[in-house]
Amino acid sequence: MLHAAADRLGIEAKKRQPGLGVLADVFEHTCEQDLVQPTFVTGFPIEISPLARRSDSDPRFVDRFELYVAKREIANGFSELNDPEDQLERFLDQQRRRDAGDDEASEVDEDYVRALGGRPSADGRRRHRHRPAG
Predict the structure, then answer these.
(1) 77: enclosing H helix or E strand
(2) Phi and psi (nearest 5°) for 82?
(3) Nearest by Cα to 92 from 104, 81, 108
(4) Binning pLDDT at 50, 70 and 90, where does residue 14 land?
(5) CA dihedral angle for residue 45, residue 48, residue 51, residue 52, rounded to 10 degrees
(6) Is 17 exposed, middle or buried (0-12, 13-18, 19+ CB in 10 A)?
(7) Buried (b) or exposed (e) across 31-42, using 16+ Cβ within 10 A?
(8) SS (H, E, C) 22-76
(9) Deepest in the core among 56, 60, 70, 116, taking most CB within 10 A?
(10) Contacts of 59 (CB under 8 A, 6+ apart)
(11) Phi first, then psi: what are they for 8, rounded to 5°?
(12) Phi first, then psi: what are they for 42, rounded to 5°?
């Protein structure tokens, strides 16, 4: 259904976001330019938000919002993902997309995953980030 809508809108198949990301493509072509009153947009597909936490109510989506006023996006916010395994999988998916020619997809950031506590350092020593209590 989403791909049929994207076809009707003339969104080229090779330029579409993967999976439910095509929902964002359809939104950009049909709604974004009409958001004059202050409007919070939520319900972003996981495919287009690799750093955002999965939604508890539907894991196909993430906890993210964009605020639009006068046809312009003025804010973008999300709950940060803090699961190193999930983050690594998303980075690997982004890297596969990048390798397939998607210039907007990110690369794997091993340092970021390591900072989340997901992998030991290359020298074999485990480094811990200590946060002040409070």
Answers:
(1) strand 72-78
(2) -125, 20
(3) 108
(4) low
(5) -20
(6) buried
(7) ebeebeeeeebe
(8) HHHHHHHHHCHHHCCCCEEEEEEEHHHCCCECECCCCCCEEEEEEEEECCEEEEE
(9) 116
(10) 46
(11) -60, -30
(12) -130, 180
With a cut of 60, say whether residue 131 has pLDDT above it.
Answer: no
Structure confidence by residue, pLDDT tens digits, 45-67: 998 898 999 999 999 999 999 99
Q: Residue 7 corresponds to which amino acid?
A: D
Map tokens 């002040």 to a residue.
132
Work out the percent of the chain whose per-residue pLDDT is above 70.
81
Cβ–Cβ < 8 Å for 46, 62: yes
pTM of structure: 0.71
Q: Which residues on adjacent β-strands are paired with residue 73?
A: 68
